[in-house]
């Protein structure tokens, strides 16, 4: 019998309303149906401390200094990795995470203008080289994404930032995918959920050797 595949860390990235949650659910179901244990999680959040920081960042009343906000994102991320993601991987559980460090580069740096050098420093300190094994970047036209996001829920403060901001975030994710071709794949998320899922499973087969 072939040895079992090691548990892998898969992240989903993209702008508002790209369909990350739907894809995460389908991938988790697909992994489970081939007998692999899987954990779905999301950022900001995913551990008790990180969820507390999520509340401060997304729903609090503070207008954060941009560097402070990025530090909070990475503080939450370090907690999430230490308390949830690494223990799961060490126990042989695959992890599917909705957003990770690429979101801080896209939103805080490209979106809000934070110097990318700050992102690199914080990532070094917080993650110490830890990175996803594969990242699925969902790309959708702004109008489609915003319409989907607004139909779903009340806009939180990130969703109220306007067209130009979200255009920069979209450009960021496309650039991140182009700069990291071994880890990332850019998927056209304007397609049907079935077509997006097929693109995702093909990418995971190529990168991680798993057939779903
Ligand atoms: P959430 O309600 O989880 O929305 P989504 O379904 O779009 O992920 O909100 C997360 C928001 O936080 C989203 O607007 C992106 C933002 N965010 C950052 O600005 N930086 C980050 O590092 C992360 C992880 C998220």
Describe the structure.
This protein has helices at 20-33, 48-59, 66-90, 101-111, 116-127, 142-152, 163-179, 193-208; strands at residues 9-14, 38-42, 94-98, 134-139, 184-188. Helix 2 (48-59) runs antiparallel to helix 3 (66-90), helix 3 runs parallel beside helix 5 (116-127) and helix 4 (101-111) crosses helix 7 (163-179). The protein is of the alpha/beta class and 212 residues long. The longest helix has 25 residues, at 66-90. The model has no long low-confidence stretch (mean pLDDT 94).
Please write out the topology:
Elements: E1 9-14, H1 20-33, E2 38-42, H2 48-59, H3 66-90, E3 94-98, H4 101-111, H5 116-127, E4 134-139, H6 142-152, H7 163-179, E5 184-188, H8 193-208
Helix pairs in contact: 1-8, 2-3, 3-5, 4-7
The site of thymidine-5'-diphosphate (TYD) has 14 residues, from helix 4.
Describe the structure using short key phrases.
212 residues, alpha/beta, 5-stranded parallel beta sheet, 8 helices, binds thymidine-5'-diphosphate
Strand order of the largest sheet: 2-3-1-4-5
Query: Which regions are unreliable across 5 or more consecutive residues at pLDDT < 50?
Result: none
In terms of DSSP E residues, the strand content is: 5-15%
Number of strands: 5
Q: Which H/E pattern describes the elements?
A: EHEHHEHHEHHEH
Approximate shape: globular
Give a short account of the largest sheet.
5 strands, parallel
CA radius of gyration: 17 Å
Helix content: 55-70%
Write down the overall mean pLDDT. 94
Question: Which molecules are bound in this entry?
Answer: thymidine-5'-diphosphate
| SS content category | alpha/beta
Counting DSSP H or I runs of 4 or more residues, the number of helices is 8
From the N-terminal CA to the C-terminal CA, the straight-line distance is 19 Å
